[in-house]
């Protein structure tokens, strides 16, 4: 290979790769901009993560298991099926996994909730499921049978949180009581005299709403500044991912604590301008020297150089244009 051709190739290579290096997006910013699909729910973003959505793109307590027919979120060691997610109102509808299509679970637990992150919607009501109860003399509409140790046992459902209940001056006592929230509409149906165990199953499967607080205010501020919400993988605190790096709250060079952050890409225009000038200088100098020495030559080597420049010389320009489009 002719030495001048070799110089030109080096110049083009350096010039074309500098913009590519300087214009690389923050990897976390790019990743967290992608919404994911989990089981039967699409368009899932912050604070949720799981499957193809990386942990730093969500809140540590909002991991979704996407292996089944519905997303599963675990709250204080209890699994809930996620039926719906509303990012505008920061609410999700969930149903207890152990009570899904099943009013006779193996283990009997009250519904537990992490109130540091979640809160019940005002449209929810509690119902009580009573297991291992004394039998009432006549069948009741709110009565159902469950096997306890392979033995049929009388069970009942009532409105509210009632450890024992009285019917016709008869107190019915039970071995276990489980409290479960259901939506307001289901409560009204279960309160009617015609309520059946089918209505109970439908109420439990219909789930209830939770309001979440996963640094909601910080996330709004981050989004408004052009960033994408996530969490710091080193300490699980909130992080705002921006094109030029990550920040504590918003996309700017000084976070709200007053501590400045320095990033290599915090002055991208100046750096790109210098790289552009250097690249142009290298390219022009090598081409000028080549043309000066071989201006009168029509050899095959010269033709090869012209063909090479014609086919490859626009690489750097294309990458500069791509960089400008992504920055704007």
Automatic annotation (TrEMBL):
Main location group: membrane
GO molecular function: protein serine/threonine kinase activity
Residue span(s) of domain Wall-associated receptor kinase galacturonan-binding: 32-96
EC identifiers of the protein: 2.7.11.1
Domain of life: Eukaryota
Keywords attached to this entry: Glycoprotein, Membrane, Signal, Transmembrane, Transmembrane helix
Keyword Membrane (UniProt): yes
Compartments in which it is found: Membrane
Protein name: non-specific serine/threonine protein kinase
């Amino acid at each position: 290979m002719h030495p001048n051709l070799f110089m030109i190739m080096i110049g083009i290579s350096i010039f074309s790769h500098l913009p590519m290096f300087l214009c690389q997006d923050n990897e976390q910013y790019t990743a967290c901009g992608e919404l994911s699909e989990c089981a039967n729910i699409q368009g899932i973003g912050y604070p949720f993560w799981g499957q193809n959505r990386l942990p730093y793109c969500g809140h540590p307590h909002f991991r979704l298991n996407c292996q089944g027919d519905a997303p599963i979120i675990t709250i204080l060691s209890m699994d809930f099926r996620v039926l719906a997610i509303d990012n505008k109102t920061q609410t999700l509808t969930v149903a207890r996994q152990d009570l899904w299509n099943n009013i006779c679970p193996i283990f009997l637990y009250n519904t537990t909730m992490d109130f540091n992150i979640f809160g019940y919607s005002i449209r929810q009501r509690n119902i009580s499921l009573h297991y291992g109860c004394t039998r009432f003399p006549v069948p009741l509409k709110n009565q159902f049978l469950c096997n306890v140790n392979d033995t049929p046992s009388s069970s009942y459902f009532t409105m509210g949180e009632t450890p024992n209940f009285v019917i016709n001056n008869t107190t019915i006592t039970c071995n276990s009581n489980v409290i479960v929230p259901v939506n307001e509409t289901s409560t009204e149906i279960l309160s009617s005299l015609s309520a059946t165990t089918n209505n109970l199953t439908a109420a439990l499967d219909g789930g209830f709403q939770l309001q979440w607080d996963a640094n909601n205010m910080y996330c709004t501020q981050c989004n408004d500044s052009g960033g994408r919400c996530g969490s710091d993988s080193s300490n699980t605190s909130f992080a705002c991912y921006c094109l030029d790096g990550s920040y504590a709250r918003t996309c700017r060079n000084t976070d709200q604590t007053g501590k400045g952050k320095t990033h290599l890409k915090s002055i991208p225009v100046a750096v790109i301008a210098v790289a552009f000038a250097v690249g142009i200088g290298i390219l022009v100098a090598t081409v000028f020297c080549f043309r000066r020495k071989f201006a009168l030559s029509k050899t095959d080597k010269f033709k090869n150089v012209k063909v090479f420049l014609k086919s490859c010389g626009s690489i750097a320009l294309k990458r500069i244009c791509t960089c400008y489009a992504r920055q704007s």
